[in-house]
Design brief:
Structural class: alpha/beta
Distance between the termini: 22 Å
Strand order of the largest sheet: 3-2-1-4-5
Largest sheet: 5 strands, parallel
Number of strands: 5
Shape: globular
CATH class: Alpha Beta
Radius of gyration: 15 Å
CATH topology: Rossmann fold
Length: 143
């Protein structure tokens, strides 16, 4: 199992340059752990690109259909007091935005508070740095 943050999942569902590497990564281990709000973050990214014209309505529909197919297969980390407490700590020690702190906190919970036991898949440099500092092995496929 690997923890996937929304940046990696967005690149996967939109078939961005790193999409092939992410698809191969997913095929090598299809057990995905993800934060409870990740589907909302993914829809937000797709909708933003559709609104700005960089993604066609058909492309957006295809991406959201792919998301709808894979999201039910994830091990979802639900909101909880431990996630909130860890996210609060992370915001004090890393230059993260609140959604990224919640992603990383969810990964820490998914790892049973042993980050070295779980790979963290992300394309976000700031989040990758914080995850590495927390003890995760970061997987960031290049495009």
């Amino acid at each position: 199992m690997r923890f996937w943050d929304s940046s990696a999942l967005v690149a996967l569902i939109l078939d961005e340059p790193s999409g092939d590497a992410l698809e191969a990564l997913l095929r090598s281990d299809s057990l995905v752990a993800a934060w409870w709000a990740t589907p909302v973050e993914c829809v937000s990214a797709v909708a933003r690109r559709e609104r700005d014209g960089s993604l066609s309505p058909a492309g957006a529909a295809a991406a959201l259909a792919y998301l709808d197919r894979i999201a039910p297969l994830w091990h979802e980390i639900a909101p909880s007091e431990p996630v909130r407490a860890i996210a609060r700590r992370l915001l004090r020690v890393h230059p993260l935005r609140a959604p990224d702190a919640l992603q990383l906190a969810a990964a820490i919970v998914a790892a049973g508070r042993d980050p070295a036991s779980l790979d963290f898949v992300t394309l976000d440099d700031r989040l990758a740095d914080a995850a590495t500092r927390e003890g995760f092995r970061v997987v960031a496929p290049a495009g």
